[in-house]
Amino acid sequence: MRDSQHLPISVAAVIPVGWLAVKVLRGCVRVVVLIALNSGVALFAHDPGISTTQVQLFADRIDLTTGFAPADAETLLPEKLRTGDTWTEAQLETARDALHAIASQLWDVGAGGKLHPPRRIRLELSTGDALNFHLEYPRVDSATLTLRARKLGELPSGHRQFVIVSDERGSTITKKLLSARDNLIEVPLAGAATATEAPSVNSGGHTFWGFVRLGVEHIWTGYDHLLFLLALLIVCRSFRSSVAIISCFTVAHSLTLAAATANLVHLSGRVVEPLIAASIVFVGAENLWRRGGEPPGRWGVTFAFGLIHGFGFATVLRDLGVGRGGEGITMPLLGFNVGVEVGQVAIATVVLPLLWRAHRKPVFARVGVPAISSVIALAGLYWLMARTIFS
Q: Which of 46, 130, 147, 360 would staple 222 via disulfide (CB 3.0–4.6 Å)?
């Protein structure tokens, strides 16, 4: 028979942990509500907004192609022409005039202090209903070409645009990750199209840090990755077990991130995204099954699902064109992965002390962990349904 002094739970003991559980639970509920209200953007849950631009310099012209995801292209159109997060040829025809007007305003292409308008514009719906703007500019006689992305400030907050400039043989001249705050790229033209030797790649001193920032933003806005980590860590009661879980996740997703970016392994997003959602459901349900206790062998589950999440991370770099056409992947891959880890560690540094403190009270394991795990599992189920049945 238990000692009677352990039977009642004092109000003083319950209030701090109850307050913490309510705060964490409220945060999880907010995530689910935001997902429901913004399903068009949040179904994939970890895309901060990325577009790509390919620029190729020829002796007589400059070809520029900018591609946008449907949700991003929609934001550039007037409200009355917005049709949702998918595009059809019919919708493209309806909005063609407006899109042509937008196309001419996408870029300021200049040299010698003078801007040059595009002389040809072509619109194209590519596979997956992405919208491509094909622009042709006259070749300019100048030592430096400047390209300014005028519309970045009108796109969703955090949007990035990766620009790769190459000569007529396809050799890279320069590349840069642009943002609303830094939307200008300068291209050296001297010998770019006629040099007998391939020009050196000018990655820019801050391109690496641009990929680091992209990695941090990716993990901080990746609600599915964050809820997966929270579901794993919420049952960890010690520093040792928490470090083991984080390390397994890091090693696993780093492996598949590198392999997928290098095109050694390819797994379709139609498979990866539902599996990421399923991983959240599984871990949340396992927490409920174990009634708040730390499941044995959790590191194995973490590693296995971490491999899947790595494929999700790799989608960002592949969408940016990293690794295509013989491009080097070391700098973007390293910068992006560093950013992911920095963002992950920053979150863990804040969350883990709160969880360890909460675990000092038995009521947290009995009430708080199941409540939070239920919300996490429901969020994962929502994503799973959205990415399969309702996709």
A: 46
Q: Is the pLDDT of residue 259 over 60?
A: yes
Same domain, 335 and 313: yes
**How many Å apart are CA 293 and CA 387, to the nearest integer?**
30
pLDDT average, residue stretch 26-37: 43
222 three-state secondary structure: coil
Say whether both 21 and 85 belong to one domain: no
- Tokens for 313? 């991370």
Of 180, 206, 232, which closes a domain? 206
Crossing angle of helices 330-358 and 207-220, in 10° steps, is 40
Q: Are residues 81 and 105 in the same domain?
A: yes
54 forms bridges with which residues in the sheet?
Answer: 65, 164
257/210 Cα distance (integer angstroms): 18
pLDDT of 175: 83
Q: What is the pLDDT of residues 237-252, one digit of tens each?
A: 888 889 999 999 999 9
Whether 3 maps to a domain, the answer reads no
Lowest mean pLDDT across 26-30, 192-196, 296-300: 192-196
Tell whether 8 is covered by a domain.
Answer: no
pLDDT digits (tens, 9 = 90+) for 123-176: 988 765 678 999 999 988 888 899 999 999 888 877 888 898 988 888 888 888
Identify the band that residue 34 occupies on the pLDDT scale cut at 50, 70 and 90. very low
Assess whether 170 and 283 both reside in one domain: no
Does one domain contain both 307 and 162? no
Q: How far apart are CA 163 and CA 230, in angstroms?
A: 35
DSSP readout, 240-305?
Answer: HHHHHHHHHHHHHHHHHHHHHHTTSS---HHHHHHHHHHHHHHHHHHHHHTTTS--TTHHHHHHHH
Tokens of 110: 């200049």
Given a cut of 60, whether residue 275 has pLDDT beyond it is: yes
Evaluate if pTM is beyond 0.70: no
Enter the tokens of residue 14.
Answer: 């319950």
Structural domain of residue 330, as residue ranges?
A: 14-46+222-387
Q: State the burial class of residue 50 (Cβ atoms within 10 Å of its Cβ: 0-12, 13-18, 19+).
A: buried
Q: Do both 355 and 275 map to the same domain? A: yes
* Arithmetic mean of pLDDT over the chain: 80
